């Protein structure tokens, strides 16, 4: 009553053994595909981690670089500016990792929080009563009177260009892992299970436990079984091309590293612009928000202080080089995996499964 390993000669197999063989080939095929996927998945997961570490390192550096601007040039507001700066870089990090947010909303939220501080600590340093209502009025007024000129919009433009590629790359890497995981658990059809049993285990039913399948026979069976997986070939090649494009975009003129470290200069230019237009801003704010309480003496005579350069460039150079190297290594590896899904049958028939250096092999019916 054998269904798969039917043969004219006496057999040592039973129907139950055939069922066991079918379970065995399904398990073995999953394990074989997992083993093939392991290196590719390991590389992608490793690079996701490496990229995220490099991003975080650059973000930390850029945040410290930006905070040092307030310490060096705008000390009266340095302590209060720390929270908006931290929020800005948290928002940037979330955007890169794929959160439902935009660069524009992050940057404009930062400038909304910055304006009350610039207005009360630098433009009108005698203000004593900065109530919640007055602060909120200043935040809302920022959008209408545009105290930071073109600098806030320029910052949005520069960051959007460079962060977009980083965000897309982060999402693309996660997608790669999803694709690989899905192929590992692709179900084998009944026909495929039977074909695999016939190829691998039917010789055992005749006592031929050492004979192995002929290579051409193995390739035909595997290609039939993995037709749905090998159909991914065109999309996988396109996916690799997209990764290549994104890494090139990141390394192009709108470099992530340059854009992040440029935040400090953009903020400085924006604050200087607001200070230079202080009298006009005060007149407009007085009309919209009313006049706040003033101390009799001006607390600060050094409204505009030249920026001191920070000397943390070594850290930045290391993080920059680290990210550039990781990009190059990664894309070089991924290019080599272009044919991964096209050649999956060949790779599964490689090694111990087939007979290579012998004149005899199993063709599905007999020893040839």
Automatic annotation (TrEMBL):
Keyword Kinase tagged: no
InterPro entries: Glypican, Glypican_CS
Keywords for this protein: Cell membrane, Glycoprotein, GPI-anchor, Heparan sulfate, Lipoprotein, Membrane, Proteoglycan, Signal
Pfam families listed in its UniProt record: Glypican (PF01153)
Keyword Cell division among UniProt keywords: no
One GO CC annotation: cell surface
One Gene Ontology biological process: positive regulation of canonical Wnt signaling pathway
Membrane topology designation: Lipid-anchor; GPI-anchor
Compartment annotation: Cell membrane
Lineage top rank: taxon: Eukaryota
The family this protein is said to belong to: Belongs to the glypican family.
Reported function: Cell surface proteoglycan.
PANTHER family registered for this protein in UniProt: GLYPICAN, GLYPICAN-5
Protein name: GPC5 protein
This protein's encoding gene: Gpc5_0
């Amino acid at each position: 009553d054998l269904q798969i390993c039917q043969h004219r000669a006496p057999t040592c197999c039973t129907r139950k053994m055939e069922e066991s063989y079918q379970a065995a080939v399904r398990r073995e095929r999953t394990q074989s595909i997992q083993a093939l996927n392991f290196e590719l998945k390991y590389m992608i997961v490793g690079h996701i981690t490496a990229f995220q570490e490099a991003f975080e390192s650059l973000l930390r550096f850029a945040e410290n670089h930006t905070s040092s601007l307030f310490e060096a040039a705008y000390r009266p507001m340095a302590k209060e500016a720390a929270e908006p700066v931290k929020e800005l870089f948290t928002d940037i990090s979330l955007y890169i990792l794929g959160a439902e947010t935009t660069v524009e909303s992050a940057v404009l939220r930062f400038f909304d929080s910055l304006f009350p501080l610039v207005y009360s600590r630098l433009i009108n340093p005698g203000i004593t009563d900065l109530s919640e209502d007055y602060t909120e009025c200043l935040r809302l007024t920022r959008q209408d009177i545009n105290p930071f000129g073109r600098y806030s919009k320029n910052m949005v433009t520069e960051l959007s260009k460079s962060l977009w590629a980083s965000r897309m790359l982060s999402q693309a890497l996660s997608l790669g892992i999803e694709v690989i995981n899905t192929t590992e658990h692709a179900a084998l059809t009944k026909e495929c299970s039977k074909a695999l049993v016939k190829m691998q285990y039917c010789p055992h039913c005749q006592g031929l436990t050492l004979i192995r399948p002929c290579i051409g026979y193995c390739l035909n069976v595997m290609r039939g079984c993995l037709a749905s997986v090998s159909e991914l070939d065109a999309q996988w090649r396109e996916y690799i091309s997209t990764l290549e494009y994104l890494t090139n975009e990141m390394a192009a003129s709108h470099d992530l590293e340059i854009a992040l470290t440029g935040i400090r200069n953009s903020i400085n230019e924006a604050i200087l612009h607001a200070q230079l237009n202080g009298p006009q801003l005060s007149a407009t704010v007085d009309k919209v928000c009313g006049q706040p309480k003033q101390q009799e003496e001006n607390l600060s005579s050094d409204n505009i202080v030249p920026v001191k350069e920070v000397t943390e460039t070594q850290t930045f150079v290391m993080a920059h080089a680290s990210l550039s190297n990781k990009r190059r290594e990664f894309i070089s590896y991924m290019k080599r995996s272009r044919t991964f899904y096209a050649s999956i049958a060949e790779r599964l028939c490689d090694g111990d499964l087939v007979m290579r250096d012998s004149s005899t092999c199993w063709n599905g019916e007999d020893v040839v």
